[in-house]
Amino acid sequence: MPEIHVVRKDNRALYEKYFDPYYRLRHEIYVKQRKWMALDRPDGREIDQFDTEDSVYLFCIDNGRLIGSMRAVPTLMPTLMSDIFPYLNLREPIQRPDVFELSRIFVIPERRGEHAGPRVDMLLLTAIMEYGISIGLTGFSIVLETWWLPRFEKCGWKARPLGVPHMMDGMSVLAVLVDCNETTWKSLCTQIGLTRPTLTWQGLEDVSRLALPDIFLRLPPAFQPAQ
Amino acid sequence: MQVIDAYWGRRALDYVDAIEASKTSASVLSQFEKMIGDLGFHAYIMAGVPTAGQSLQQTILANGWPRDWFEMYAKEQFHRCDPIPRHCVSTLNPFAWSEVPYDRDEEPGAHEVMTRAKDFRLNEGFCVPIHYDDAVGAVSLAGEKPNLAPDARGALHLISIFTHSRLRALARSAMNNQSRRLSRIEAEVLSWAARGKTAWETARILGVSERNVRWHLEEAQRKLETKNKTATVASALVNGEISI
Q1: Global pTM?
Q2: pLDDT per residue over B201-244, tens digit each?
Q3: Of A150, A165, A222, the CB nearest to B131
C-alpha cells in the first residue's frame, strides 16, 4: 500500500529529492492539463508564494515514487483565500492557529479511480484528518471546484460554505470550511478499511502529538454479540 | 478582483445554515421553495438523470413541478428527448435552460419539450448537475422570468447543492427505520452481483444498460449505507433482502 509521509520544515531534508518531481508534477497537472496559465513558469515547475517553510506537505509515496500530494498552509500566514480569492469568503476572514488551508490536492492520472487498495484520493483525505487531529486542528479551509462537494458529502467530510460559487476560467469554484474531528476520521477509516493510522512521521519523532482515537471495523448488526 | 453585490450570497449562506439545522425533508423543502420563489422560480425537480430503460419516477428525490406538467412529462416520456438532463451528463457547471444547445430541425422532440414547458409558465430554468463517481443527478428550477444575474446564479448553485445533499442525508436516516429498503430491481441486480456477475454481465442478463445497472448498485449502496458493492451484497444478504 502507498505510504503517506508528513513533510515539513523540520524534516524536509529527508525528502529533498522528491521536491523537484513534485513541482514538475504540479506543472503537469495544473498548467498543462487544467490550463491554469497564471501558474505557468518557464522552468516547468509550478511553485507559488504559498510554498514557504511554514507549509506542510503530505506526500503519497509508492515504491519510491510520488503518486499524490496535498499542501496545508497555516491560516495565520497568507493563503490563497486571504490573498488571491478574498471575495470567495463572505463570512469572517479565517486566521486561526487551529485551521490550515488545503490546496494542490492531486493524484497522478494513472493512479486515479479504483485500484486493488484504498483509492489514493480517499487515502489523502483520511491522512490529512489524522494529521489535523494529531496537531490539534479543528478545521481546514479550502478553495475547491464546486463539483467536488457531493463527493465530500458522500465520504463524510462536513463542508460549510464560506461564500457562493464563482466561475473562474470556465470552472465553478467556492470556499468551504471542513470540520477536522475524530468522528470524520473514524468514518473515513471505516470506509476505506483502515484499522490503524496511516501517516509516516519520519524525522518528526520529537513533535508532540495528540492521541488518536481507537479505530475498529464495525460489524453488521446481525453479528454483534448479544449484550 | 471581482466585486459583486453579495446580497443573494449572504441569503444563500443563511439558508444553508438553516437547512443544516432542519430535521425533516418537509421543513427543508418549504424553506427551499421560499428561497427560490424570491429569485423568481415557482417550480423545481431533484432527480437522477434516468438511464435507458430506467423510469424517471424511480430517480426522484423531490418533485416540485406543476402536477399536470409532470404527468405529461412522464406519460410522454419527455426525459428521453429532453436536452436538459442530457446536458447535465456532459458538464460539471450549472447552466440556464436557454444556454443548452439542440437542433430544432434534427431534434423535434427536444424542441417539443422546451415549448410545452412554456405552457406551464416554465419559460426559463436553471439546472445544477450533481456528479458522483458513477451516477449523475440534477436540481432543475424554472419560472416565468427568473433572476439569472451572476450573483443569483452563485446563490442558486449553492442552495441547490446543499439542499440536494441535506435531503439525501435525511432520506438516508429515514430509510434506516424501514425494514425492507431495496426496490425489486435493486434486489435483482444485487442478487446477480452476489453470484459474481459484473455490472456488464448483469446488464446483458437483464437486457438493460450497464449504466442502469451501476445506478441501481449506487442506489442500493446509498440506501444500505455501505461503502462498495461487496459490502452492499453482504448487507443485503444479512438483512434477508436478497438470497442466493
Answers
A1: 0.79
A2: 999 888 889 999 999 999 999 888 888 889 899 888 877 788 77
A3: A150
Question: Which value does ipTM take for this structure?
Answer: 0.85
Domain B7-175 has CATH 3.30.450.80: yes
Count the Cβ atoms, other than its own, within 10 Å of residue A113. 11
* Strands in chain A per DSSP E: 3-7, 56-62, 65-74, 99-107, 139-145, 159-161, 166-168, 171-179, 199-200
Q: Where are the alpha helices (DSSP H) in B91-244?
A: 108-118, 150-175, 184-194, 199-206, 210-224, 229-238
Residues of A at the B interface, defined by Cβ within 8 angstroms: 86-87, 90-91, 145-147, 149-151, 153-154, 160-167, 170-172, 174, 190-192, 220-223
Contact (CB<8Å) B158/A153: no
Q: What is the pLDDT of residues B132-177, one digit of tens each?
A: 877 889 999 999 999 999 999 999 999 999 999 999 888 877 766 5
Q: What are the extents of the domains in chain B?
A: 7-175, 184-238
Beta-carbon separation of A90 and B132 below 8 A: no
| CATH H-level superfamily of A3-208 | Gcn5-related N-acetyltransferase (GNAT) (3.40.630.30)
- Provide the residue ranges of all domains of chain A, joining segments of one domain with +: 3-208
Set of chain B residues whose Cβ sits within 8 Å of the Cβ of A166: 2, 154
Cβ distance of B165 and A161 shorter than 8 Å? no
- Look-up of cell digits 502529538: A209
CATH numeric code, B184-238: 1.10.10.10
